[in-house]
Amino acid sequence: MKKISALDRLLLLMTSLIAAYQVVAGMDGCCIAVTIFYTIAFGVLVITGLLLTILGFEILDNSMVVVAAALLPLSLSSGLIYRYIPGLYMVYLIFAVVGLALILVTRYYIGGKIATIVLAIVHGVAGMVIFILPISLSIKGVTSPLFSFVGIGGALIGVGGLLLAFLKAGKPILPKELIYSVLPCLLLVMTIAFVVGMAAEG
């Protein structure tokens, strides 16, 4: 396990502070449901960043952290669907709830590759929603071009989720040390992209 460095802690602390700013600043023009979804997503970022800062990368071995981290893409994508494709909201909400439940069950009662596959699928679908929808809306002129930064953040969260999922499955795409080395920077850039994009939403 890579020992967390002072630079890693600084990057993770910055991630938490920026995410906390977004929670406090809120979302102008959003309904209560969307605000709740976004607040959960950025709240998870705050907690994840602080836990990693204080406890180091070892905390990633905790199953509860993995389950809680799944709330980030699921909450953010649910908020996007609710606001921009309301007709699909109930279908997607069912997917999100069932997906989170499957992650919880497989992580605690089954484990192994099945748990990793479930995590990768749920993360992958949510990540694709966060990646494709904002960029599509920006291209169509529905939102500001800067809203596409949310899509960039979605791509980064998808990459990070897959790297960690395959690592847990024992088939890492990149060396374990390299994954942990880039994770703090990845989280920071992802958070900045989300905040910049959210500021331009609407």
Description:
The longest helix is centred in the middle third of the chain and has 29 residues, at 112-140. This protein has one domain (6-199). The chain is built from 8 helices and no strands. The N and C termini lie far apart (43 Å). Helix 3 (63-69) runs antiparallel to helix 5 (89-110) and helix 7 packs antiparallel against helix 8 (176-199). It is mostly helical.
Give a quick set of tags describing it.
202 residues; mainly alpha; 8 helices
Set down the secondary structure blueprint.
Elements: H1 6-25, H2 32-55, H3 63-69, H4 71-84, H5 89-110, H6 112-140, H7 148-168, H8 176-199
Helix pairs in contact: 1-2, 1-8, 2-4, 3-5, 4-5, 4-6, 5-6, 6-7, 7-8
Short summary of the structure?
With 202 residues, this protein is mostly helical.
Rg, nearest Å: 16 Å
Question: Mind summarizing the main beta sheet?
Answer: none
The number of strands is: 0
Low-confidence stretches: none
| Helix/strand class | mainly alpha
Please give the domain count: 1
| Gap from first CA to last CA | 43 Å
Helical percentage:
over 70%
**Helix and strand pattern:** HHHHHHHH
On the 0 to 100 scale, the average pLDDT is 86
Number of helices: 8
Please report which band the strand proportion falls in: under 5%, 5-15%, 15-25%, 25-35%, 35-45% or over 45%: under 5%
Tertiary shape: globular
